[in-house]
Each structure stands twice: as structure tokens, then as C-alpha cells.
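Human:
Take a look at this sequence-structure pair and walk me through the C-alpha cells.
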Amino acid sequence: MTASFGEALQRLRGERGLTQQQLAEKMNVDRSTVTNWETGRRMPDAETVALLSKCLGVDVGELLRAAGEPDAPPKVILLDDEKIILAGGLPVLREALPGAEVAGFTVPADALAYARENPVALAFLDIEMGRVSGLDVCRELLSICPRANVIYLTAYREYSFDAWETGACGFLLKPLTAEKVRTGLSRLRYPFSTGGTSK
């Protein structure tokens, strides 16, 4: 699902003269839930989309089409300050995500600049990068791309508890392998299509 779903929902709600609060009451959810749907921070599941279509008096297919995958390949980034890890990890990601555009970075500022220009679907972030923490990079990335999935890469298990508090959806121990990547894909908060196969 993409952010276009939120735009379609907002448009359809407005056309029917409903406020977010009124739609929320029809759906038996909090107004903040509707806000999150419309801003793309959260996406409803298929059953909820069907209920939305009834509340809005539209064909469920219209909402599902608005929530469909974009034509452009998903953008995936790998950020690690060690060039050797980056060199080994990029081919692994391209193997596990054959339909994605994969970009690698050793400098956090470069990765964030890329995210400002591209809707990042998935980011693999090293946690310990000199004076910069991957945990902080995650927070900033999610402020830029709220629907990005973040999976941390590290050699240190003790970071796992801190990692979950940043909005990440996965944690992988180095070295990166295609099998580990595929396992991580099964836990994405915002699933997307990779190489023609929905994960």
C-alpha cells in the first residue's frame, strides 16, 4: 500500500462532507486513526478497507486500487560506515530483493539526503557508526519517510532492546545473508512487492 491511499481517503471523505471525527465514529475508531491513514503513517488492513468503502459508499476496488503498489521499484538502502560490509551487503540485498533499487551509503547524511529525494521502502541501518548512532538515523529517516521499514544490522545483540523503541521492525546480526534478509521481510510493518512476489 502507498501514501496515495491516504490522499484518496481524504478526497473521498471530503466529497461526502465528513470530518475525520465523523468518519472515525462510523468506523468505531479514534480520530487519530483516521489521521494516520490519511497521512500515510498507518495503513488499514483489507477488512478495514472493505468497511471504509461501505462507510464512504464507494466500491472497495476503488480504495484498493488507491492502496496498490506503485509502478516504480521500491527503494532500499543499506547504511554502514564500513566499506567492506557495504561491498558485501549490497549484492546480498540485490539477490534477496531482485525488483528493488538498492543504494548503499557509508555516511548517514548522504543516506538521509537520498531519503529526502526518494520514498525509501526499506532501510538496513548499522547501529554503531563512529559518533553517529543508527538509532538516531532511524528516527530522522522515519520523520522523512514515515512508511519506511527499518531493519538494524549489528554485531552486538545488546542493542536489540533499544532498537525496538525507535520504530524499527527488525534486527539482524551481521554478517548479512539473503536468508536473513528474507526472514526480515516477513516482519515488515509496511510490506511491499519485491521482484513480483509480495512479501
